[in-house]
Amino acid sequence: MAPQPVVLERTPQRYVGITSSVPMRELGEQLPPVIPEVLGWLAARGIAPVGPAFWKYNVIDMDAELEMEVGVPVADEVSGDDRVHPGVLPGGRYAVAHYVGHPDGLEAATGELLAWAETEGLSWDTTEADGETRWGARLEEYLNGPDDQPDMDKWETDLVFRLKQD
Hints:
Elements: E1 6-10, E2 13-23, H1 34-44, E3 54-60, E4 65-73, E5 85-89, E6 92-100, H2 106-119, E7 126-129, E8 132-135, E9 138-142, E10 156-162
Antiparallel strand pairs: 1-6, 2-4, 2-5, 3-4, 3-9, 6-10, 7-8, 9-10
């Protein structure tokens, strides 16, 4: 992972998204194309995204399931429906690392970000409830992808993890 991670202040950001849970044993399989579904939902309503699509990891239970959201930032408040819901990414301090490469390398890049934060004495925004660790905001923001960059080794992703607020 290069360049070095940084700590940035981010303002709250509205988004629309779809939440789902995936058994960890199935994570290696192809995930459904949810980003195009959210983008299509916005396009059908004449709403333009104001930032890159993201995966937001809410709960990571290595023995059971991964609860995640696919989201797309929007400028204004949006009503959802049975499948797509509105949300707000919280403002605050975030650790951010830029990754360029094949998506298979994201796990290692995430490990490097976690190790860097530990050496810097930084703590993540998490809460414990019912034996689960819930992340305040743990994002993979996709800056490009198959539509604009056919070479997967050149895909760009920002890892954006909210820090515990003082």
